[in-house]
Write a structure and sequence with these properties.
By secondary structure, the chain is an alpha/beta fold. About 50% of the residues lie in helices and about 15% in strands. It contains 18 helices and 14 strands. An eight-stranded mixed β-sheet has the order 4-3-2-5-1-6-7-8, sandwiched between helices. Strand 7, helix 9 and strand 8 form a beta-alpha-beta unit. The longest helix is centred in the N-terminal third of the chain and has 22 residues.
Length: about 450
């Protein structure tokens, strides 16, 4: 083999650090400002906490399961004292993003943290350099830090907004990073192949800081391994055996079965729990494993196959991987029950990819719309009718009326259960009982691109 052939073979192997460099060269005008924003945020944090923030953080990334892992981590660390998590997006109320020992902070706490610390910083920056005003994501991170400081939070999980490498949480000093999985999300911003997304998400690793990952295989797994090696982050894989072992432990601990609403009935939540347990065991080995298992077994999480009334379930399944997980939960929790679905999508999703399995198993479908960035219900219904022409598909654009219609189908014997799923905006419009929050949630950005008064 001559040198040219050997070179060709080497060039055909993945080189994730080099691919990342080429991406940065291609998109320097877009990516360099993102890094600059992270550096500015780090500066704001140092200014507000010159001796360092007192909370110890874990940065959680991934396509699916980030919120669940963050809440599992919060629950585990709460066995030591005060623990928190910052997750997003919220479902009904912005303050739900900030959890301390399993409970959302109060409106008064958010108000004081904003008015006394974060808002004055924003206004001051507006006077000196308007381009440096913290954006929506940065404001949320700063609020979380203020709230956790004021509540004496010792450990907190911080969920990535999107991606990892260019996420604002990179401004934090962390004790560990977590990458739950790599799936089908945000192709327009993270890349349209999974290995591109893996490079982006693995970029949340830090030198000499352990990264814990779930079962990430093939090109995605290789990309993660290479990025961690390049950065110098010790890599810990929490594989399927850990989840299987956890299931066996739970069976022994709960011979009559887990609590009915436990998150740990489903395989993907078992994998999430196994990740969280591994992180806590490494960072806080004094936490009792049996005590943590007992806490996790009793957990519920708003919008994660949550039973809100008899026979009615809500699940935030807004990408193909989450819909697949939802269908698994339906089989595990509802068995052979006939299910009527209410669903609504955001404009960035494709119904064919999202709901093929759902359409194949449903007995009735009501398609609706959220109050923000909604895909037209008629458009979604037309696609679903091609997926399964045999089932009734109705269009009711008002989410509350759509849910009422599905319940009526159930009441008259056309279904045994109702599952409402899709975008957070639709679920908010359907179930949020606070009209003021519904308005605020549906109107983000209404002041942008408007002339000054």
């Amino acid at each position: 083999m001559d040198n040219g052939q050997a070179s060709d073979m080497l060039e055909n192997q993945m080189n994730a650090p080099y691919i990342n460099v080429l991406d940065q060269i291609d998109h320097a005008a877009v990516l360099a400002p993102r890094v600059a924003r992270i550096r500015r945020l780090r500066g704001y944090i140092r200014r507000l906490w010159p001796n360092g923030h007192p909370t110890r953080f874990v940065h959680v990334s991934g396509t699916n399961g980030k919120g669940s892992v963050s809440r599992f981590l919060e629950t585990g660390f709460s066995l030591l004292g005060t623990a928190g998590s910052y997750t997003g997006p919220h479902l009904y109320d912005y303050r739900d993003r900030f959890s301390v020992n399993g409970r959302a902070v109060t409106p008064a706490e958010v108000t004081l943290a904003w008015e006394e610390v974060v808002w004055p910083l924003c206004v001051e920056l507006a006077e000196t350099n308007p381009e440096h005003i913290p954006d929506y994501s940065m404001c949320g991170i700063l609020l979380a830090l203020v709230l956790f400081d004021r509540r004496g939070v010792q450990w907190a999980a911080m969920e990535t907004g999107c991606g990892g490498r260019y996420d604002g949480r990179m401004a934090l000093d962390v004790e560990a990073t977590v990458l739950t999985n790599v799936g089908d999300d945000h192709p327009g911003t993270l890349g349209d192949t999974r290995w591109q997304r893996a490079i982006e998400k693995a970029g949340s690793a830090r030198k000499d800081v352990p990264m814990f990952i779930g079962d990430i295989e093939d090109e995605e797994g290789e990309a993660v391994r290479q990025i961690c090696a390049h950065i110098g982050a010790p890599l810990h894989t929490v594989g399927k055996r850990r989840a299987q072992s956890l299931r066996a432990e739970l069976k022994a601990a709960y011979p009559k079965g887990l609590p009915a609403n436990s998150m740990l009935h489903s395989d993907h939540q078992l994998a999430n729990a196994a990740l969280a347990i591994s992180v806590v065991a490494r960072l806080a080995p004094q936490v009792s494993r049996p005590d943590m298992l007992e806490k996790l077994a009793g957990m519920t999480y708003e919008g994660r196959f949550q039973q809100i009334e008899s026979g009615v379930y809500v699940d935030v399944a807004h990408n193909p991987n989450k819909v697949a997980a939802l269908m698994h939960d339906v089989r595990i929790r509802l068995g052979n029950a006939r299910v009527a679905y209410v669903l609504g999508m955001s404009e960035s999703r494709h119904a064919g990819a999202m709901f093929a399995d759902l359409a194949a198993s449903a007995v009735h479908l009501v398609v609706t719309e959220g109050s923000f960035k909604a895909t037209p219900a008629e458009e979604v219904a037309a696609i679903i009718r091609t997926l399964n022409p045999k089932i009734p598909v109705e269009v009711i654009t008002d989410p509350r009326a759509a849910v009422a219609r599905a319940k009526e189908v159930k009441h008259h014997g056309g279904a045994d259960a109702v599952v409402v799923t899709g975008s957070t905006y639709m679920l908010d419009a359907a179930f949020n009982t606070d009209p003021y929050m519904r308005k605020i949630n549906s109107s983000y950005g209404w002041r942008f691109d408007k002339p000054a008064a």
